[in-house]
Write a structure and sequence with these properties.
By secondary structure, the chain is α/β, with parallel strands linked by helices. The chain contains 13 helices and five strands. The chain has a five-stranded mixed sheet with strand order 3-2-1-4-5, sandwiched between helices. Helix 4 packs across helix 6. The C terminus is likely disordered.
Length: 291
Amino acid sequence: MRNDEKSELIDENEPILSVRKQCEIVGYNRSNVYYEAHPREYHSTEFREAVMAKLDYWNTTEPAWGVQKLIPLLEKDGLKASRDLIYELQAEMGLKTIYPHKNLSKANQNARKMPYLLKNMRANNMIWLPNLVWAIDITYIKMGMSHMFLTAVIDWFSRFIVGWHLSELLDTDPVICALKSAFSNYGYPAIINSDQGTQFTSDDYIKFLADWGIRQSMDGKARWADNVVIERFFRSLKVENIYIYDYCSPRELRIGISSYIDRYNSIRPHQSLDYKTPFDVYHSVNFCTNC
């Protein structure tokens, strides 16, 4: 007997048999009797994109703020969004709040997690020349009333952006495209570090690095600081460029990002580099590990 057929047999007004007893007799979950399914609230594409743009802004400027703080901030902008919608959009965007999360879901059993190889290297200043370690990550980029995803690859030692790729898709192919571009222009590193996103635990990505003889490193779970150099680049890109210019097409966005990366690499001084540019530091060593 199907559940809907069992449900029709349950009578909440039955004077002799309680609802619990009726459910036991027909083998029906009692909680279903009191549950009224409600249709999923509909939101227009324009509304969802507006909420996503604000979520990205607050995640960039205040990455430790959770949903409790975000709901009233969105309401001030005339965007009344439920907790469920915020969680849904954050997952769609790949956003991570930087506080310890409860482990509410099991990891994908097919995902192959790799160790974090940079802990001792960072603690002992062992990342001392270009192309020893690269970092890679993906971020949401606002574009008019739509969005795209940017994959970027950065040299850890020099903060030099060696490759990037802009895509409408949040999957593995753009990641591999960004790496192929970087390899073509700058050789390849000994180690590439990423987070534990599905793009970086996929068989295609793992095989791609293995074919090049590159060691794969992954952040610890919810350890945003393990890949801090690429996170800082994304923050600079958004605050100094994306939030200022209203790019309305993929072409405009690509031109804008390309221009910003050129300035970031060659003109913008970095405090962590003693106010040198990434270009100067990257090219100050006339050899690299695997070129």
